[in-house]
Design brief:
single chain; 296 residues; alpha+beta; Alpha-Beta Plaits; 4-stranded antiparallel β-sheet; 9 helices; elongated
């Protein structure tokens, strides 16, 4: 019977006195590797990511991608150690994420990104403000996602706005737990104050639309001016004020063509309620998730 190469090798190994020595040597090498190689139950892997968020006022998602996102990608890709680049665009803003090689130092990664941006920021379009650079790591990746959705029988009692409010309270409580990192909300509609100018009333009161925009943009601001001492007490002085309701916004004054003050509520409808649904445009546009809100 022809045993072949494997058969002859097996026969020689069984009959050889060196076989037990090879087995003992293999066991010894295995034990040495078991005790010598470091190991962890939860190894700390450094995969730094740098988020570069740029505001692009007045630009749609497609225009922001073309004018800001693509040039920024080109700049970021030239940084040493960058492995992948991702871009998310929405109306009025772009965020470019640079993922560095495993083991890169997060602080060095952020410094290299900022240096490269400063060296090339003369190429930015007119009206684009400076970017905001944020360093993220593997610990910032969501590991637990809590989704709030009404039961089938209680769907009429909850909407996305009320679920968002509940999720905000839940997020506050989760942040109090030890060793919890960054938390965020996805979906739902937060409350906002909307100002809808009435063209007929603007003409009636002689108020230009620019006055409404100026009044709204300058509102909700306060600045500390220092302290005033009186009767041995120090009282803090603040210029301006913060607004918390649609009624307060409606009491803002706007300049009319005649110079007389006009309340904002007289020339515009000021309402407070859940944010209106916005259609998605371009890559990475955030979308409202119906009656479902997630806490990450």
């Amino acid at each position: 019977m022809n045993l072949g190469i494997s058969g002859r090798l097996t026969k020689a190994t069984i009959a050889s006195p060196l076989t037990p020595l090879f087995l003992l040597a293999a066991i010894a090498v295995g034990l040495l590797a078991l005790f010598a190689i470091p190991r962890e139950e939860e190894p700390q892997i450094s995969v730094p990511m740098v988020d570069i968020q740029v505001m692009a006022p007045g630009l749609s998602a497609a225009d922001a991608t073309e004018l800001v996102g693509i040039p920024l990608e080109t700049i970021v890709k030239s940084v040493d150690g960058v492995e992948h680049v991702y871009t998310q665009a929405q109306d009025n803003g772009v965020m470019v994420t640079a993922r560095f090689l495993v083991g890169s130092n997060p602080e060095d990664a952020a410094i290299r990104i900022e240096e490269k941006l400063r060296a090339n920021w003369d190429r930015k379009p007119v009206g684009i403000p400076d970017p905001m650079v944020t360093v993220r790591g593997i610990n910032d990746v969501p590991t637990v996602v809590l989704t709030l959705t009404p039961k089938p029988g209680a769907a009429g009692q909850w909407n996305d706005a009320s679920l968002y409010e509940l999720a905000s309270k839940l997020r506050t409580e989760i942040a109090k737990v030890d060793d919890v990192g960054i938390t965020f909300l996805v979906g739902g509609r937060p409350e906002e104050i909307r100002i809808a100018p009435d063209p007929a009333k603007l003409r009636q009161y002689g108020v230009p639309l620019g006055s409404v925009i100026e009044a709204a943009s300058q509102a909700n601001r306060s600045f500390p001016l220092g302290n005033i001492r009186e009767d041995g007490k120090a009282v803090g002085v603040t210029a301006g004020r913060t607004l918390s309701s649609a009624q307060e916004v409606g009491l803002l004054t706007v300049r009319s063509g005649t110079g007389s003050p006009v309340y904002l509520r007289d020339v515009a409808a000021v309402t407070q309620g859940p944010r209106e649904n916005r259609p998605a445009h371009g890559a990475g546009q955030s979308r409202t998730m119906g009656r479902r809100t997630a806490v990450g």
